[in-house]
## 1
Amino acid sequence: MSTQPSYQSMNDAYTAQVRHKSDRLMNYFLVSFFLVGLLLAIFYDTWLIAIGIGSLSLLAYYSVKLLLPGSDTYQYVASLVYGIFMAQFIYQMHGLFEMHFIAFIGSAILITYQNWKLQIPLALLVIVHHATFGYLQYIGYEKIYFTQLDYMTLQTFTIHGILATVVFFICGLWAWQMKRLSMRLIEQTYEMGRFQQEQLQRKFLLRSNQDLKKTNKELDSFVYSVSHDLRAPLSSMLGIVGLCEMGNPGAFMQKNISLLKSSIKKLDGFIMDILDYSRNSRLDVNRQEIHFNDLLADISNNLKFMGSDLRNVDIRISVRNGIAFHSDQSRLSIILNNLISNSIRYQNPEVTDPFVEICVEVSESAADILIRDNGIGIDKENQEKVFNMFYRVSTKSIGSGLGLYIVKETVEKLNGAIQLESQPGKGTEFKIRLPNLAG
Amino acid sequence: MDYKYKYVMVIDDNQIDLYIAEMVMATTRFAEKVICVSSAREALDYLKPLYEKPDELPGLIFLDINMPEMTGFDFLKEYQHLPENIRKRCIIMMLTTSLDENDRKQAEENQFVKRFLNKPLDRDKIAQLM
């Protein structure tokens, strides 16, 4: 994507363009004024003034422009030069009154720079010139050629001055207004560009979001079919193993069959863990009302057949839920399944009444779930690590080492928190707080 | 000891799973005769002519979900167009490896499906159906 030029650079580019265009106009006007001076010299025989003053003025202007290329000073010099040309023409025409208007032409030309301050040198020069020459003529000085009128009184002079000031003021005002309009135009152009840029970016983001959603969906159906294709042969194997058991095998065969069976179940569990993990990390949270009693009854029913070599563990459920709780059912099921099956798997063979107790308390804002067992417990030093990926407490651990990692990830996906307290030989307690996603 | 069902049909594209179902039902005396078909199309072709002989209809049908050409759900769509005297005689059970929540939900919402079972079919599951 192309990046938009900054506001400053747009502003600079515009200013440079105005300056370049105006400088060219100045060249035409200044040279024309010089030529007009020569033309007047033909009629009034004022060659010395025309060539002398005219060329000195041009020299001043162009030398400043060349010597100080980065500054605006030459523009102020131009302003002065227009005033000097006015004085020169008035003199050359022997005080012809209409030549005073030359000052106004200069004032109007200067608008092109869009800088009201350029009016100041011209105005000052005109005032000084008029005051000096008017006074000189008034006191009767010879050959001043300021005006052909012989009644240049103070009143005339004042009116003259006020009108000139108004013209300079209006020209300055226009320059200022033009400048302001240009600034606004640049601002709008800049905003427009930025808006288009944002629009483009939004479109780009939207498209990549759609792509991502599509990829996620494809990945999900990929995981779905892969897990089916991996698990289908395993369930066939379990079925065959079941058939073998039905054939009254001897003790030796029975033992081998049991080992085979637990290996198959372990592999199946591993695939299901990976499936749960990938589901949790990619699918959106699906909000629905949770009926804890039904959910927990379902889970404990399924876990009854967990392992024939394990004693039955008493699953005690107590749910206090006067308030409706909303969350993601399949994620909640992943969490509870993993924790309860851990309690069954890591039961303490030394206790006579293995149990796992699940207490649920629902409030407006959250559900507090407590899962407590009297199993073998977890060492203090291992307690931090059990939530790590692929971490298994001992070589005797059954399972993929993913279970508690998935639990933690899933709890986090539901914006909840999980805490672990455990004493080896006494039991383990998980406290989970899940926000109520109602409303 | 009598058989629970005279005829039970199993629809599954996996030959081994058909064999397992057949053996488990035979040993547990769950079904006298197991009709094994390896596609939903074949199952429909088998059921349709039995309109004339309702006594030979299977009392129970185990239906797999993941099958090529016609899935278990495709079968159910066609099944509802079968004559009523066929439909009222058969109980359909889903028998699948799928653990997908959507599959389970879709199956449970279907009026013809009585239960959703996970493979493999074994003695414990048959005992529950007895």
## 2
Amino acid sequence: MKIIVCMKQVPLSSKVEIDEETGNLKRMGAATRTNPFDLFALECALRIRDQIGGTVTVLTMGPQQTETMIRDAYMMGADDAVILSDRKFAGSDVLATSYTLSRGIRLLGGADLIICGRQTTDGDTAQIGPAIAEHLHLPHAAWVNAITDVNEKRIQVRQDLASVFQISEMKYPCLITVDKDICVPRLPSYRRKAEAAAKPIRMVSCQDLPDPDMTRFGLVGSPTTVERIFPPPAGAGSVTLEGTAAEKAGQLFDLLAAAKYF
Amino acid sequence: MPYPYKKMDEQDFAYIRSVTDPSRVWVGEAIAKEFYHDEMPEYGVFPPELYVEVLTKEEVSAIMKYAYGQNIPVVARGAGTGLAGGANCKYGGIMLSLMKMNKIFPVDTQNMTVTAQPGALISEVAAAAAEVGLFYPPDPGEKTASIGGSIITNAGGMRAVRYGVTRDYVRCIEAVMPNGDIVHFSSNVVKNTTGFDVKDLVVGSEGILCVCTEVTLKLIPAPNCTCTLVIPFDSLEKCIDCVPVLLRLPFVPTAVEFLERELIDIVERNLHKLLPVREGAAVLIVMYDASSREELTQCCDAAAAAALEAGALDVALADTPERIGSVWSVRAAILEGMKADSVGQEECDVVVPRSRIAEFVKAAKSICLSHGVVVEPCGHAGDGNIHTEMLRQPGMTDEEWKSATHACLVELYAKSKELGGQLSGEHGIGNGRLEFLKPFIGDEMYQLYRNIKLAFDPKLILNPGKMITFD
């Protein structure tokens, strides 16, 4: 059983400066973490591997500093990892990113199961997973909030589609994107720290990829035009709550209590 | 009736309305039950004759002066989140709510202090400090607790290991004495040997000496980053034995908590909250704060190496807000989990020398087992404060539960004393532990407590029947 988990390193804080000219996040120097949704993806992969055997490979696209995220994934129990890193990948939108990741998966000889987090906390599109599947012509299920059955041949998942739950069963190879709270991700283990620090990470550049069509990578391969990007005005007029309905209700209660409405 | 208090009449009600406002005064049946018990109603639900919300120290003073003259008992109340049965009116009289006195004055960045009225919430005071990059560390964990209540009960909490308890942060107190006099205990100074430092006596006095109307609190520079380690062990003994190992390191942890697997399972079973570490019969949860990422990494690396050397099965690292939240949300859910897992609870809040924690926990289990009571000890391994929670199972009659828990408590307190501990670490005496205090501290000390009470309140009108009695 060969499982690939697509992960991304994102800023630690949601308060990240944005370059208003290019529309890109100013990542340099900012503290980072693994995209929280991807930790659920990795945990699902590790559990499936522990249950039916196989390997878990982490695949990411990003700069050299992404290595810290990979070491963290190794401390959680990932078997190996590949970083797709090349200046030519810079400025990728959903289409170019998903294409690049799909080439990376092809370079690795494909996988039985590809797992992504539902979305990232910086891009927030929730489209990368399904787009990878489309590039690879694979069946996929997004927004999975439970893996109801899994064996060497197929996986059965439950999707939360807002008004209905859908149970789907797919033969491998296939791709799923998992919602947060599908499980509780394990924490990185100090027992694995020394081993994780010494473990090799495969660095892959543009020219290493199969069929590199240079018009499909990075800014050149990104048809999305960002007209303008700016942080939402942080005025006193609006507060955005995040989380599940229950979490948001709790936050709303706290806000009203803080404002002494109760 | 042990005290010959006056029963309040219409004239008394009219007077209180005249010095406050009729819209802030409730009488008799109009007083909601929520306003005359705390979070342990098992320790007493006693209605006042009059409930008043005050807005100024002058109102407090006028009420106290009148009550003192008329011999009417008065109980001052904050948010009602206490755990000792303190905020209720055992002998009727006036319940004086300070929750509308909730101003927080601008932070004094020169002196690094903040001044607040008693009804401000601890979380609001902490937020005001954080806005200017400062930190108010005491955090008993209850988000709705008032700053006044936390001072008058000397609230502790998990961060006591590194930062100490509420008393360590009180610079000065403005208070109203039982006779209505407005007094100031100390001033905004760092040290003081001007005779007795009475403020330290007022902190933790459970509302029996005076009514706090304003407090000035020390603030410290805020740490920049935080991290939590979860350290599983195959036995409770190894888990507790690791605590001094961690405390001897050159890095002081902010919090050191221990949890046994049974308790983790209770939270999982009842609230579906899962600890991200599945192994171990017992775990230590250790928090470190630091001023830089590098320092934090050094703390965690040193602690992890020491713990593994001391027999830990592993050391798991929670280094992002989500991971830290996934650990502490389980710790925070314990009380709720135990409430869901039982039909009633009784609690023992002893503090023992840190070296005796494992011994006490073992003894507590065996004591409670011998009386047929299910028990789940947990708590602050870093400071020796152990919350021994007794859980009532369905099928126990009221009488069986009462007599079994009473027998357990008598033995648990005796054990704490034998080990060099104290009766209560952070919840206080109130009404709930009243009968256990005298045998614990002895007649001589009890008389000293009484004399202190009489020096402040010779007519015994302030929160009578709590902490000490004169029967």
## 3
Amino acid sequence: MKYRYTSFFPPEKTLKWVKRPLIKTEIFGPKESRTFDALIDSGADCSLFNVEIAELLEIDLSRAKQRKFTGISGTLTGYYLPEVEIKVDGMERSIKIPVCFVQSPTVGLLLGEEGFFDSYRIKFEKDHDTFEITSVKS
Amino acid sequence: MKSRQLNYDLRKLLKPYANKWVALSRNHEKVLANGNTLKEVAEKARSQKSVFLKVFPTDSFYMP
């Protein structure tokens, strides 16, 4: 399935836009699911979700393992769950991926390498304003 | 290859909502609710099918 990049307001006047590979993704909790725009981030070792998502969906983090993450703004500790169910818009089936929930004002949802990139083949074709997601099990 | 020929342009739509959570309509044409916390936004948008997004500042580039 091919998707278009999403345009955001550019921080500099010399640019028309900033484009990001965002994908509508349904996140499942024990009782309900909600849909979010998630950023596909091949530079992230694993998927990072804002901890507010766990609170909203009543995902229990009490038994989650702590993991440290280092990024451009320093190191932070997150709560790691080995299996969180997600369904990417346009894909036939949901999958379970490991997710680390972090308390950070700069993280919404990042779909990173571990689990997500193992389940899907992602081709970025920014010169065509598209990216392609294919299930590796199909 | 199937294609989703959607090209969401959120430049104008999200400019007023830096640092907020927003609930967007499924076609990304309207902001249905906004707020400082996701829970607050979800409560405001309860009856509507929406897509949630954390909006980052518009005066800087995004680097997770």
## 4
Amino acid sequence: MIRYVLGRLTSLVISLFVASIVIFGVIEVIPGDPAAFMLGVNARPDTIAALRAEMGLDQPLITRYFDWVTGMLQGDFGQSWTYKTPVSELIADRIWVSLPLALYALILSTLIAFPAGIYAASRRGRAGDVTIMGATQLGVAIPNFWFAMILVLIFAINLRWFSAGGFPGWDDPAQALKSLTLPAIALALPQAAILARVMRSSLLDMLGEDFIRTARAKGLSRRKALWKHAVRNALIPVLTIIGLQFSFLLAGGIIIEQVFFLPGLGRLIFQSISARDLIVVESVVMLLVFTVIVVNFAVDMAYAAVDPRLRAKA
Amino acid sequence: MSLLAIENLSLQIGDTDILHDVGLSVTPGQIVAITGESGSGKSMTALSVMGLLPRGAKATGQIKLDGTDILQTAERDLCQMRGNAMGMVFQEPMTALNPVQTIGAQVAETILVHEKTTKADAYERAARMLERVGLKVAPTRYPHELSGGQRQRVVIAMAIALRPKLLIADEPTTALDVTTQARILDLLKDLVQDFDMGLLLITHDLAVVADIADKIVVMQKGRVVETGPTQDLLANMQHLYTKALFEASGHQVDLPDNTAVRTGSVQLLYAKHIVRDYALPRKSLLGSRPAFRALDDVSFHIDHGERVGLVGESGCGKSTLTRAILGLEDVQGGEIRLDGEPVFSAGSNLAVRRKMQVVFQDPYGSFNPRHRVDRLITEPFHLLENPPTGMARDTAISKALQDVGLSPDDAGKYIHEFSGGQRQRIAIARALIIAPELIIFDEAVSALDVSVRAQVLDLIADLCRKRPLAYLFISHDLSVVRTVTDRVMVMQAGQIVEQGATEEVFVNPQHPYTQTLIAAAPKLPELPYAVETI
Amino acid sequence: MSRNLIIGSALSALFVALAVISFLWTPYDIETLDIPNKLQSPSALNLLGTDQFGRDILSMIMMGARTSIAVALLAVGIGMALGIPLGLLAAARHGSLLDELIMRGNDLVFAFPSLVIAILITAVFGASAVNAIIAIGIFNIPVFARLTRGAALPLWERDFILAARVCGKSATRISVEHILPNITNLMIVQGTIQFSLGILAEAALSYIGLGAQPPTASWGRMLADAQTLVSIAPHTALVPGFAILFMVLGLNLLGDGLRDWLDPRIRVART
């Protein structure tokens, strides 16, 4: 077990290291002169020089890289060129929109997908299964930003149950959640469709296993065998998918935030890219990648906690 | 009064008739064996008794367990009976258990499903049941920590936890070693006596049947062909199929005398002090990596034209040795030479390779499903410097197919169009097509039905008559090795513990392990009269 | 031939047909604006109505189909051309450093949020269809690499591979002669799935303005343009959305149908 944890931990550190190098490389090295790139074609040489000095671009690459990494480890993400505020402040504001949104969407997605997938697997080939599979086919085919537009059309513009966009802040939690509801649904439904399919196929795999037959031979009814043996085992591979989904929801919120005018990380990234504010882009991308890698690590740990075979293996 | 009485059982799945008018009975304390080849309907009969038939199955007739007709009982009531009045043990112990639950919990589940008792009580009884079946590990272990034989004991414990009146065992020992098989069968016999249970045992192994059953039921293609008390049936077989079955099981191959053995300075296969280690995962970060010694100072030789057998149970190192001989893996110590040349080399060593070929165990996995037969059996041509092309190639293919009893027209077909026995013939054709000096038969007949097995062994004997073959015949099945080799080697835990002339070793084993092995193997009784072969 | 296969093929074929026909003919020329005719609902003149510049929506859908299919198809091409050999290599050299590197490389690419990186690439290197192809294609590589390796590894254990090794064939030869033909079915099915994901990705990129640029038509950008018009002229938002939906649905059904037809035991990756 210790070996497994240590192994995964090493993997984590190496991944973070390589990721940081890649991001640093792409952002700071590839555009040629980051400062010139940021200021655009019409910038004056002295403005460019000033920015270069401020960004420390005259220093050797290695020093810049180390400064950046050590800075991040201490919580200093640099200063945004466009907003003239510390990037950490920008992130802190935005993350309180993106993170709850991703969690909300994840919970919705799981709540819909699990029962749907289990039900479909237990009614394999019959009407219930076919209906659910049909629904998931639609779900995975819908572009989520279009779905968002439709939701706005129906629920905000026509029915007026929700506002069409914007985020009022967390002072009134109920209102805040309400404003996140339509976006969360737009994000959640396509993911739920994928998750339901995975749940169904994982469960069907389990139901074909010998130990289910053994359970039935012991006198368990079909339903009991399903819940006590199949579902528990089927959940294990599904865990990985949920971990991946969370990362996707966090980053994929970008487009949804555009549709609903939510001041989240996605919007920040997008605006920064448009404004060519490389400092912000660099840090936010690193943050997102960091989250993904850490979430994957957590999923691996959960995996080992649930599956005794992994605990014993190297 | 019969415990189990099956009458006129017929079964249809979809459009296919699976069982036709099957009848048998079991009384308490009696062991009834259903035997037959694959497709005979043995397992389906067992599943019918348990009421565990697949969807779309239509059964007619009567299956009376202690007076209750299973076929007329509702599913809910059947759930009450399963695990309680009747229990079942299946064939594959490796996959029969839930991998994420402890074995104690799984045995306790049988109790908890049927009786209103506390968890603590159930666990306690489970622990005692595990002891009863001879398992010496803690109930808190997980299935992956146990061997095949141990897992099968757990499955048995689960099935008998509530002392059912009827125990059904579907090929319970087929996936196990000879010695483990003997112990599990003894356990079953013991439990039948102790609990006064009826045991319905399904097995294709006639020697097991002759050994342990009180009554034999012979099935073929979904029908009961013959049935009767063991001794009576063996002494006086009526049906043609029964006779053929028993003959095939104890089939003695007419091996031509080995006049072609050439001993000389250069032996065909020469292995000296072979050591093969597998690195194991590290236990701690410091210190050297532990290793598992799969082959421990193995030395032997095979002369040109000699037919040698290799027996051993799973884990003894047979497969490792095979790979080493074939030059597929390097060894850590010693050397292996084929006709004087080392078998393993970093680069390509086609010259050495063309002198040996192999026939594998699995007739379904030995061929690329996407290629046609002509391409499949000419794969060894890659080893030749000037492989035949055009007409010469076609002739070679036709001849190879005819030599193994198939038709040249078969060259254009895909492998899935052939049966298991036919595929093994094609495998032999592939092995012989470039006339290698040595053939390795790696459990080549182990996956075949008894009658097909007899035919393939006859084919090998035939080929020996046409052209002197030298081979290494590897098998866990002692009776097969005995009939098809001149000399035999016995392996245990990575070492060759005994070798000698086949008959000598079998009649007069020297090493204690060999003696155990031969004693454990169930024996087919000598039939009191000559049986015609079909 | 299952129902999935039939419906899927029909839908996919429909859009491919539209794309192909667009090279020869469209009802109207989309480069000429016709402002007086703007925001017309679907009628006999314009089967799917007109947009805010008076352009015929049906014509734009046809041209947009070209863009979507081209981008998604080439992206799949990149993924397969680079991913499959990597996967075969990793499986052939299972347990070696190379295998480890390829696997870690895969994991690393998967760790990057694909949409963010696609946006990054197209923003840094310029928004265009070509860059969209590259951005989406890059993320197809690890999908195919992982799938190929996963499918190839159990095949290497099979006896017929051992037989080929006994016949002296090299790992490369075996990968091409024996492994590859046996994973083709899986690759075809996965290719269809990745194709459909590519359509969605291209639409998303175009929606935020980073895909093919005007005057090249693109369904995603049609949706972006329609966003503010959704209440006054809903057809401008609904038509492109349904186009994407049906194209992707068709491809997914085709993929499922192919899988069941070719080999029901195939497991595909769908994340």
